[in-house]
TrEMBL record:
Entries under InterPro entries matching the protein: aa-tRNA-synth_II, aa-tRNA-synth_II/BPL/LPL, Phe-tRNA-synth_IIc_asu, Phe-tRNA_ligase_II_N, Phe_tRNA_ligase_alpha1_bac, Phenylalanyl-tRNA_Synthase, tRNA-bd_arm
The name this protein goes by in its record: Phenylalanine--tRNA ligase alpha subunit
Organism: Wenyingzhuangia fucanilytica
Domain annotation Aminoacyl-transfer RNA synthetases class-II family profile: ranges: 108-326
Cofactor binding, per record: Binds 2 magnesium ions per tetramer.
Amino acid sequence: MLDKVKELIGEVNDFKATTKEELEAFRIKYMGKKGILNDLFAEFKNVANDQKKEFGQALNTFKNAAEGKVNELRANLEEASLNTSSLNDLTRPAEPLNLGSRHPISIVKNQIIDVFSRIGFTVSEGPEIEDDWHNFTALNLPEYHPARDMQDTFFIEQNPDILLRTHTSSVQTRYMENNEPPIRTLSPGRVFRNEDISARAHCIFHQVEGLYIDTDVSFADLKQTLLYFTQEMFGKSKIRLRPSYFPFTEPSAEVDIYWGLETETDYKITKGTGWLEIMGCGMVDPNVLKNANIDPTKYSGYAFGMGIERIAMLLYQIPDIRMFYENDVRFLEQFKSIN
Ligand code: PHE
């Protein structure tokens, strides 16, 4: 008796069905009203008392095996029929196509380029691995100049001449070497600084720098251009220029915009002042022009540079710079753009 049940368990486990009809026949044979399972349960009372426990357990195993098999095969067949019917039904709506979204850094970069291209700026790019001349020396930062410490540098293989650019001003050096004034160009790109990573700073980030060189370019031109930019980009029309220092510009300034103090967030991000620093700028130092073979007695120019992450954090109220690089789709999907 017990052997018979064990044999039946084996049979059930090995069973395969390719159609619903086969499965139904199987179900009726084993689990139907007059099926084998019920017959066996009816036999139970005839089993000797000392064997009842073992027989009962075997019966339960058999029952579970049969039920499990029916459920498993039913699910398989249903899935298979779903698959074939979706292929056959040509009127069925297409699967939704999931369009990716642009990275917020790209969106903001494109917006900045768009604003400046409307007043005649072109875009220029350059290498991320730079030499000392283009990143530092030509920009009025000779060897041992203390201001080199302003931008902690990654060097390549102990060679102090080859480095990861610390700003995209290096692209402007290259542009000045290869183009005659008038020059109006933007250099967006990735830059690298050997800094500790925190919510506000990262060792890899992005900048857009701008350079304008022509005859009679004045500080007033710079200020007017910056005002135009902040109006277009943020809808804010109050800026202030604070004296600052950059080796490649003289005079130099930090640009603050008046963000306002309307909300609690405004208080937080402006530390209660209403003002926010957004970029550095200044009049191109005559030495920089000379280094690029541009005559500083004939030409003058201005330059400015900003971090894209910083601007994006302001525009989208992003609290932590690291979110840009984590590639978490829940974060990235929130940004949609047409350009
Ligand atoms: N290159 C500067 C920086 O990376 C920014 C800057 C550009 C400042 C041009 C003034 C003029 O910090």
